[in-house]
Design goal:
heterodimer, A: mainly alpha, Fumarate Reductase Iron-sulfur Protein, Chain B, domain 2, 2 domains, about 55% helix, B: alpha/beta, Glutathione S-transferase Yfyf (Class Pi), Chain A, domain 2, Rossmann fold, four-stranded parallel sheet, 14 helices
Chain lengths: ~190, ~350
Amino acid sequence: MVSASGPIAPTPFTFLDEVQARTPGNPHLNQCIQCGTCGGSCPSGPDMDHTPRGIFAMIRADMRQEVLKSNTPWFCVSCYYCIVRCPQEVKITDIMYTLKRLAVEARLYGDATAPDFSKVFINWVENYGRSFELGLMGQHMLRHNPFGVFKMASMGMGLVSRGRMAFTPKRIRDLEGLKNIIAKAKELEVSHEV
Amino acid sequence: MKYSYFPGCSLEHNAEAYDSSSRAIAGPLGLELVEVDDWNCCGATEYISLNMTAALALIARNLAQATKNGLDQMIAPCSACYLNLSKCDRYMVTTPELAERLNTALAAGGLSYQGGTIKVRHLIDVITEDVGLKTLASKVTRPLKGLRVAPYYGCLISRPGLRISEHNPEYPVSLDEILEALGAEVVDFPLKTHCCGGHMTQISESTGFDLIRQLVKGASDYQADMIVTVCPMCHLNLDAFQNGMNNFFKTNYQVPVAYFTQMIGLAFGMSARQLGFGTSLVSAGPALAKIGEELPAAAPAAGATKRKRDDKSLPMPTPLAAGQGKGGSGKGQGQEVSR
């Protein structure tokens, strides 16, 4: 099902079990009643390959590959409308984060724009302790939308000239400690995989 | 009242006005803010999309750092920081296995944190609940009379039900009440809890810009002079991306966006400069004029980094505008034309 080079070994669980286990707290995914309130409430729903309801049906049908290839989780804007409206208290936003992580691990996402954005963002945080907007936007746009740099230039200059964008990232004092914490946490994430 | 204060990365740079105005109004409101020492980024929505344990450990480090202040409450003005911090704290209370894992990670940096130790609160909740609307109103020396404002909460504080305070996730009213207490004319803004799109402009322009368009158009249709927000991400999207959105849809909206702390400061009689006005890309000049306040003449070095336009360089059509030209000059009325 998954290519031999992929990091995911066949699991004894269903895909539904895997998604549940990898989401913090109890995501209540197995209680979805397919009412569609989530998709109807979603501001970016029209741009998704499958609505959240569709994705949840596919998860239950064990369609791992298709789910992780979908753009659905990457179009989630984390607005939590679905969560507050879900009659079954399914933690939809948190499940979308889980699907993103699983897709990154399995390298199954179709368009790399969103995962790369997250990676560049985090790269600055892991190495400085703080986020760095100019570096993030510059790096991201050069990779995915070089033409956009020109379109964004006036906005970027507007922010810079108003003192709202720094040229250099800020570094926290105990960067060493933070790096140790992150390294340990990453170790624990791997060993925790189901 | 003494609180730990977690500014977050946005408030250091693009939302500096939110930070300075929050600190400026803290004194008059009787709030003492003690910044969390050596805090780090909360990871926004990006880290949790890649690695759950690392994302939560990154957040937990801030909670651990906050305990060093010896205060049990922490204010986060940024909605994303607020949500991440309170969510992580909640997980550490409800999921002991996860809490143990996070503490193992924290120990590698010589720290530890027990879930529930720090009560994470958004600044707006502290103002409505701890300070109270009565006290707030009593400090008003310059009511914002005649100013029509659209209160915009965004999603991360309205939802997802992590707030201790009682409120309706789809129709909160605390910001409405604050602005009313300041004397402003508050628009019953139907899009008050809609999403600004977060980082979506970087992922899909059509999706991101449309979310921004709906909000700006909504405020404009309701004839609001400005949108008032409680979140740096919302501010960035609505203000900094407003012209990009205009270009995308061939529209010409110019709705200024301000932080609620800036509005409180104005009503307390503080100057626009002190509150960081003049640093947004859409000019708040016309709105401020309604309450007799002038936009600070030229934000720090506005236009200074640009080449000075030499009048003799190229023949330009003279009747550009009555008084001011477009941008460039950087002086005069501090016009914030961003194109």
